[in-house]
Write a structure and sequence with these properties.
One of its GO terms (biological process) is respiratory electron transport chain. This is FAD/FMN-containing dehydrogenase. Its cofactor is FAD. The chain is α+β, with helices and mostly antiparallel strands and about 475 residues long. It folds into 4 domains: about 100 residues, Uridine Diphospho-n-acetylenolpyruvylglucosamine Reductase, domain 2; about 120 residues, Uridine Diphospho-n-acetylenolpyruvylglucosamine Reductase, domain 3, CATH 3.30.465.10; about 120 residues, Alpha-Beta Plaits; about 80 residues, Alpha-Beta Plaits. The protein contains 14 helices and 18 strands. Helix 1 runs antiparallel to helix 2 and helix 12 runs antiparallel to helix 13.
Length: about 475
């Protein structure tokens, strides 16, 4: 055992020496030089100090860092904007973190192909702004847009607010460049919408959470910038009315429907009463609150269409009350009710947060059952339910207000047991990481688990890239 320890320490020292020969002092940080921010992501898991943090500013630098670590048998953990909630970017003791934070920038906008080529460390908001200035839209949008990085968005196959119209992050990727666990740089920056030349290799890395490769560049689809955006906050009496309104939105607004966010009363109260700066646009109480957004082409024509659609739903008794946005400021204020979840840690404290998927018809039944199970086991618990719903995605927040520590494991077990009972998925858009790997079997069959392990072994036989993430045990 002592010999093994000395061998491992020697390998780590040799790796550090080789990295120091390749990278400048500003690009390689070790020991106490490592910033606190690189010790954890946003998962509430305890911080871990890695062996070193390498911050390449080229794709070749990422490949060199991975190759050097592979040659010395030292694990690598990729890091992006560190906004992940599942622990996928949390360091591992003795591992080297490869951070993409210095590899940023927009490399090209091709208006004829309607594509944008970006480096993985570029913040999502920067990509959105560049597309907007060029007269286009990047479809992906989520609350952490200012700090999350596009590489991390793709590595976790992020969802966000407009999946109902544009799909998940992988739907916007035409080409991808990535580094394999042995340090090989694979460049496939395709810009063609139609390209069936062999296997679609990029799909292996989209959503793999940095366990199969490190994304370095991407070619993303651009969409026409909407000519107008319209939104409303609606109060409804029942979940049956929610599903009826969704059906009407799909029929009446068609492809212009860009968001359909549903908030249960417990969430609404927490967002509009407890979170400072969030105002309720409509009076209550109501059984449900729905934010509907439509992106159209012509403000006058499509604005009138949206208002008629709202009025008809009100006249037919589907909607009890509604506030229709009259300005961009109103739309921003409406979205604040939904984005308030991002501030719960400030106003509610540490809590268990869940990103689950369920069949749309059973979501309210699930919420009632889950709320009851939590309250029975933890009488002082506060549970909140909200989500995108139209794409089958619900979020759950649970905590014991004022508790010195939260019973996270107990809460996890209760919620995920209910997810399994209702035929859902333990991750709709946030990934598996560390926090959900023991529950992955609740969602995947044994044959699927075996296939994922085989893919990991094929690409990473030494289990060096983000080991222990997603799959609970090392692949055999």
């Amino acid at each position: 055992m002592l010999h093994d320890t000395q061998t491992a320490e020697g390998a780590r020292n040799a790796c550090l020496s080789a990295l120091a020969s390749r990278f400048s002092a500003s690009a390689l940080l070790a020991g106490e030089e490592i910033p606190e921010r690189n010790l954890q992501d946003s998962s509430f898991l305890p911080p871990v100090r890695p062996l070193a943090v390498v911050r390449p500013d080229t794709a070749e630098g990422v490949a060199d860092a991975m190759r050097i670590c592979a040659e010395h048998g030292v694990p690598v953990v990729p890091q992006g904007g560190l906004t992940g909630l599942a622990g996928g970017a949390r360091p591992i003791e003795g591992a080297v973190v490869v951070s993409l934070e210095r590899f940023t920038g927009i490399e090209e906008i091709d208006p004829d192909s309607a594509t944008i080529t970006v480096r993985a460390g570029t913040p999502l908001e920067t990509v959105q702004r560049a597309a907007d200035e060029a007269g286009f839209l990047i479809a992906l949008d989520l609350g952490a847009r200012g700090s999350c990085q596009i590489g991390g968005n793709l590595a976790t196959n992020a969802g966000g607010n407009r999946v109902i119209r544009y799909g998940m992050a992988k739907e916007m990727v035409l080409g991808l460049e990535y580094v394999l666990p042995d340090g090989t740089l694979v460049t496939g920056l395709n810009k063609m919408l139609k390209n069936n030349a062999g296997f679609d290799l990029k799909q292996l890395f989209l959503g793999s959470e940095g366990t199969l490769g490190i994304i370095t560049r991407a070619v993303l689809r651009l969409y026409p910038k909407p000519g107008c955006t319209h939104a409303a906050i609606c109060g409804l009496a029942s979940y049956a009315d929610v599903t009826e309104l969704l059906s009407r939105a799909r029929r009446g607004l068609g492809p212009m429907l860009s968001a359909f966010e549903v908030m249960w009363p417990d969430y609404w109260e927490a967002a509009t009463v407890r979170v400072r700066g969030v105002r309720a646009p409509i009076n209550g109480p109501h059984g449900f609150y729905v934010l509907v957004e439509m992106q159209g082409l012509d403000a006058e024509i499509d604005g009138a269409r949206f208002e008629r659609w709202i009025e008809t739903a009100f006249e037919d008794g589907v909607i009890e009350d509604a506030a229709v946005a009259q300005s961009t400021a109103d739309i921003t204020a409406f979205w604040r009710t939904r984005d308030a979840a991002g501030e719960f840690v400030t106003f509610l404290g540490a809590h268990a947060a869940f990103d689950i998927g369920l069949p749309v018809p059973v979501m309210d039944i699930f919420a009632a059952a889950c709320r009851e199970k939590l309250a029975t086991a933890l009488p002082d618990v506060l549970s909140l339910f909200y989500g995108h719903i139209a794409d089958g995605n619900m979020h759950v927040v649970a905590l014991i207000p004022g508790a010195a520590s939260q019973p996270m494991s107990e809460i996890d077990a209760i919620v995920y047991d209910q997810v399994r009972a209702f035929g859902g998925t333990v991750s709709a858009e946030h990934g598996i990481g560390l926090k959900k790997r023991k529950y992955l079997r609740y969602t995947r069959t044994e044959a699927e688990m075996s296939l994922m392990a085989r893919l990991k072994r094929a690409l990473d036989p030494a289990n060096l890239l983000n080991p222990g993430k997603v799959l609970e045990a090392e692949p055999e």
